């Protein structure tokens, strides 16, 4: 396996992005605002998931699955696979992998928090509003992939498209109940386009998801130190934690959870500063990429 030899690049044009050459691009305001809805640091775990896809050479190892997605996406009978349709499929798998890997490992399958976290940052991004189908699809994909065996059984029990339609109705109820901030996004209007993408890619992708559940990596990310709740309280009182931090990742994630659950803006700003100062010496954390398990 290759190791990551990239660097972090701060800029103000492309938001969070994993770029060629193993570079993580971050908005420059992220340096000072770890917990703001616009650029909270948990957005970075999506980009790290892209890096894992690249470092583990997943598209080369699973070219058959990507071809299957491209075949399913052909729009009329007799159309043949060309480079363009394969590239579209590669892009979809690259994104689906990042969405799902992030949800399963970094968010530890906490679905409701995951959806909240992605949508509050997406709502600030202009191209999310322009290309709503794509982002609704990514969010719907994680909603469906929570239960991969139900997806697989659907192929035999009911038809796959009836299954996806039923999941779509549940998804819309979930969004209305839990994500009131997304009311400007036209979910219902995009139903046909999102279900078409789901029918093309979700079933083949589910086999990648089954193969890349790296549970010892996930457990390492989620190890909770004994005094953890006290550390979160300290951060949200605006104070810096004096002792060394055993799991900086978990501190960032749980502080983000607390910040998205409704504290007022000045408390979040103070907590964000306290978190950044607390983590200034946390570079000792052994944050290894997963190896195959
Ligand atoms: Zn992405």
Instruction: Name the strands of the widest sheet in spatial order.
Output: 1-3-2
Q: β content, as a range?
A: under 5%
H/E topology pattern: EEEHHHHHHHHHHHHHH
What is the assembly state of the chains in this entry? single chain
Structural class: mainly alpha
Helix content: 55-70%
User: Describe the biggest sheet?
Assistant: 3 strands, mixed
Uncertain spans: none
**Taking all residues together, what is the mean pLDDT?**
89
Number of helices: 14
DSSP summary, beta strand count? 3
What's the number of structural domains? 2
Tertiary shape: globular
Rg (C-alpha, Å): 20 Å
Describe it for me?
The structure is a single chain. The chain is mainly alpha-helical. The protein has 14 helices and 3 strands. It has 2 domains: 8-46 and 217-284, no CATH class; 62-213, no CATH class. It is 59% helix and 4% strand. A hairpin with a 3-residue loop joins strand 2 (17-19) and strand 3 (23-27). Helix 3 (63-73) packs across helix 4 (83-106), helix 3 (63-73) runs antiparallel to helix 10 (191-211) and helix 5 (111-122) packs antiparallel against helix 7. The structure holds zinc ion (ZN). Zinc ion binds at residues 46, 50, 95, 98. The site of zinc ion (ZN) has 4 residues, from helix 1 and helix 4.
